[in-house]
Amino acid sequence: MTPAGAAPAAAQAASGSEVYVSKTYCPFPASNADGSVDRPYCTVSAAVAVAQPGQTVLVQAGSYVEKVVVNRSGTSDAPITIRAVNGPNGFVTLSGPSGGNAFSLVGVHDVRVEGFSLRSSALPSRS
After folding, report:
1. Can you give the pLDDT at residue 5?
2. How far apart are CA 82 and CA 105, in angstroms?
3. Residue 62 forms beta bridges with which residues?
4. pLDDT digit string, tens, across residues 16-55
5. How far is the C-alpha of 50 from the C-alpha of 55, rounded, in Å?
6. Burial of 76 per CB tally in 10 Å (0-12, 13-18, 19+)
7. Per-residue confidence at 11, pLDDT binned at 50, 70, 90?
8. Nearest CA to 57 among 65, 42, 66?
9. Is the pLDDT of residue 99 over 70?
């Protein structure tokens, strides 16, 4: 049985202290991604799904439209950090699809989210 707040181990967990995300440099097909700097994940969600306590998800500049569900906790000594890498090449913008939340952190602890520009996607128009 999995303890409350913990997620089952991912099929392919990233190794090292950093897990990379990039829309610009993501491999084709996306299934070739492993979270390394040379083969980053294409979505924040894919990286967060494999992030372990003590790891930092580094999200490169770009606009990401997705709902990132964090279902794994860090620890007080080894939090999970999700960090936007903003700089001269641009900023990281995360928008939840269809007007929803960009991040969902329910029932988890010791998770840090840093540097994102969060936007609400437009709700679909009703005819």
Report:
1. 38
2. 12
3. 92
4. 899 999 999 988 888 899 999 999 999 999 999 999 999 9
5. 10
6. exposed
7. very low
8. 42
9. yes
Please, which residues have CB within 8 angstroms of residue 59's CB and are 6 or more apart in sequence?
21, 44, 47, 82, 83, 84, 85, 92, 94, 116
Measured distance CA(124)–CA(101) in Å, rounded: 15
pLDDT digits (tens, 9 = 90+) for 55-80: 999 999 999 999 999 999 999 999 99
Say if CB 82 and CB 64 are below 8 A apart: no
Q: Look at residue 117 and tell me whether its pLDDT is greater than 60.
A: yes
Distances (CA, A) of 13 to 91, 93, 115: 27, 25, 24
Q: Which residues contact 118 (CB under 8 A, 6 or more apart)?
A: 93, 94, 95, 102, 103
Contact predicate 118/102, CB 8 Å? yes
- For 6, 39, 48, 58, 120, the CA distances from 98, given in Å and listed in that order, are 28, 29, 21, 25, 8
SS3 content of the chain, % helix, strand, coil (to 5): 10, 30, 60
